[in-house]
Design goal:
Layout: H1 2-16, E1 59-62, H2 96-103, H3 107-113, E2 115-118, H4 126-135, E3 139-142, H5 150-166, E4 173-176, H6 196-200, H7 205-221, E5 226-227, H8 252-269, E6 272-278, H9 299-306, H10 308-315, E7 320-323, H11 342-351, E8 357-362, H12 366-369, H13 375-385, E9 389-392, H14 395-410, H15 416-432, H16 448-462, E10 464-468, E11 481-487, H17 493-503, E12 507-513, H18 526-534, E13 539-544, H19 549-553, H20 558-568, E14 573-577, E15 592-595, H21 601-612
Length: about 625
């Protein structure tokens, strides 16, 4: 073990000296992200659950101008269709180094290896390194406050690995959530890909491979070797606010293919994919970040609709599976959360044949820590149930889990052999990924421009025309006067729409309402005045943002009321859902309805081109239960 630690330190020092050594490197600044037109941008992106900043209400009137020669749509460079390669070959099993390592580890070090732990700050500190060397965690989970940009995170990752090498001498899993537009931890510098459901709406599983490969390469460049994804949940409850666009869709047969391709992409990029949230979190509306919830799905439904994407992901080579905190009484009569249920973990092991790492979702979530059990007790339950790794996202939670497990072994509640079983899974996976060799593989420097073009292309293809019974898509030929009503703009949405309308001879006015991601929309007076104002225009385009899901988040129905009042007055209307396509559930009679599944550059440009007739939407509905 001392030799391994020394080898690791020497490798890291070589990385600092300028040699690219995978997760031990100090990369130079990446070039700025570039959209398809080649214009450099460095716009900060929004982390999960924090959307664009609130802006003042505006009402801007624009008159049609002569259309210049040319087109707004950039020349896309479609990514070539690629066949996912086989995942990298793991080390021979069992790897002899595993038993050797187990033989020299203390009980305390073994327990530490079962923790995927959060740390504070954006760089190593004496306190952080001391904590790592004291607890010997098997990995680090990056949170929103840890990641500024790729090169900063690469330095942080390298320092964390050096600290671990000087302690227990076993390299760390370094993990992160990185799902696309709405779940990311970076402030800027990485490519922002459309969310999973936007990818699903293209109908092209090969795109999931390309996106995972590109995103995975950027993560590897940042020192990350484990990604908590892809999401393998099938979205069947359309009131679900926590999964929503994080799912590839609502049809298990389609989700199977996208999950499989995403796993292949991550593996090819050199990062370890973790399927989540077993056995599925798409069938309940309650968010387990805050509350305990039971999914009443029958065993037959679970086997037909929930489990197949996980099976496909496992067969594609995913070496780890994360358990959610939802309870499933049809499997576990005691209705325990999946993460601490022996019956549900046995389902994964015995029926799906999975022998890799079983991991919990965050042990600090309300479904666990907000119940009658505390972190220490829940951690003991999880390990007794069969979990190998506990996700503990803060130093305090990590310490509580560590103490609980250590006391349980010392008291005889958990045997050391049970701990060893988990250590074998952890160490076998680390060996299979070269993390026990002291010679980490080189990370590929991302092609930032190509990745930006891929993101643009994915978004452009995602936009879906659900229905056009009125024949308003594209908008009837100019001259027409268009009223656009939508939320405050943090994406460059209105300049893009405005330019497309002006170039095609339309006059328009934009009226914005307060950001619906910050709570209930307060402009009650608009509900009376906007329908009157809309009567003075030829057509009205209403842009909604989670109109359906905000009913459950905030009890807010402002967007729903607005659309329905416009319909009552027979206003010629096109409704565009900018995020979840489930908005149509609030106004199922709307005759013309478009969904973009997000607001990345490609999605915004595609929407503009669809409205003015320069592009025909090619997306497909990924949620078969929508009207």
């Amino acid at each position: 073990m001392l030799f391994l630690a020394l080898a690791l330190v020497l490798s890291m020092l070589a990385g600092v000296a300028g040699v690219t050594l995978g997760w031990f490197r100090s990369p130079s600044e990446p070039e700025l992200q570039k959209p398809a037109d080649g214009t450099a941008t460095n716009t900060p992106i929004s982390p999960v659950n924090t959307e664009e900043p609130t802006q003042q209400l505006t009402s801007d009137t624009h008159t049609a101008e002569a259309s210049p020669t040319g087109t707004l749509a950039p020349i896309l460079t479609p990514a070539p269709t690629q066949t996912a390669p086989m995942p990298p070959s793991p080390a021979p099993s069992p790897d002899p180094r595993v038993e050797e390592q187990l033989g020299v580890m203390s009980l305390e070090q073994k327990i530490g290896q079962m923790l995927l732990m959060g740390v504070d700050g954006q760089g190593i500190t004496t306190a952080t390194c001391s904590l790592i060397q004291r607890l010997s965690p098997g990995g680090i989970i990056y949170r929103r406050n840890n990641a500024e940009k790729p090169q900063q995170l690469a330095r942080f990752s390298s320092d964390l690995q050096i600290c671990s090498a000087e302690g227990v001498g076993i390299p760390l899993f370094i993990a992160i959530d990185h799902e696309g537009q709405y779940v990311t931890r970076f402030n800027y510098g990485v490519t922002v890909f459309p969310a999973a459901m936007a990818q699903g709406s293209t109908g092209d599983p090969a795109l999931a491979y390309q996106v995972a490969l590109a995103a995975g390469q950027e993560l590897a460049y940042s020192g990350v070797n484990m990604v908590l994804g892809p999401v393998a949940d099938v979205l069947s409850d359309y009131d679900n606010t926590v999964i929503s666009l994080r799912s590839f869709g609502g049809d298990a047969q389609d989700v199977n293919q996208f999950v499989s391709q995403a796993v292949h992409g991550y593996l090819q990029a050199g990062v370890i994919p973790v399927l989540k949230h077993f056995p599925g979190h798409g069938g309940v509306a309650v968010d387990t970040h805050y509350n305990v919830v039971s999914d009443q799905a029958s065993r037959a439904s679970l086997e037909a609709e929930y489990l197949p994407p996980f099976q496909f992901g496992i067969e594609a080579g995913a070496p780890a599976v994360m358990f959610g905190h939802v309870a499933y009484p049809s499997i576990d009569e005691a209705a325990q959360p999946a993460s601490i249920s022996p019956s549900i973990i046995e389902l994964l092991r015995e029926e799906l044949g999975f022998q890799g790492i079983a991991m919990t979702d965050s042990m600090g979530m309300g479904a666990i820590s907000g119940s009658t059990r505390n972190i220490a007790a829940a951690s003991v339950q999880a390990v007794l149930a069969g979990e190998d790794v506990l996700l503990v996202t803060s130093p305090g939670t990590a310490q509580a889990a560590y103490d609980g497990l250590l006391n349980a072994v010392r008291s005889g509640q958990i045997t050391e052999e049970r701990i060893n079983e988990s250590l074998r899974s952890i160490l076998e996976t680390k060996a299979g990924w070269g993390l026990l060799s002291g010679s980490p593989s080189a990370a590929t420097i991302p092609d930032w421009k190509t990745n930006a073009n891929l993101s643009f292309d994915a978004g452009y293809r995602a936009v879906t025309l659900f229905r056009d019974q009125s024949g308003y898509v594209p908008l009837p030929p100019a001259p027409q006067n268009i009223l656009i009503i939508g939320p405050t703009d943090g994406w460059g949405l209105y300049p893009t729409l405005g330019e497309a309308l002006r170039q095609n001879g339309y006059s328009y006015q934009i009226v914005t309402y307060s950001s619906p991601w910050n709570g209930a929309v307060p402009e009650v007076g608009y509900l009376d005045t906007l329908p009157i104002q809309a009567a003075n225009y030829d057509f009205t385009v209403v842009l909604t943002w989670d109109a359906h899901l905000n009913r459950f988040r905030y009890g807010d129905t402002w967007q729903t009321q607005l659309v329905n009042r416009l319909l009552e007055k027979d206003i010629p209307l096109v409704v565009v859902a900018l995020k979840s396509p489930t908005d149509i559930l609030e106004f199922p009679q709307v005759p013309s309805y478009i969904a973009t599944f997000g607001t990345t550059g490609g999605q915004i440009q595609s929407l503009a081109d669809v409205l003015v007739g320069r592009h025909t939407a090619t997306g497909v509905n990924p949620l078969p239960g929508l009207p």
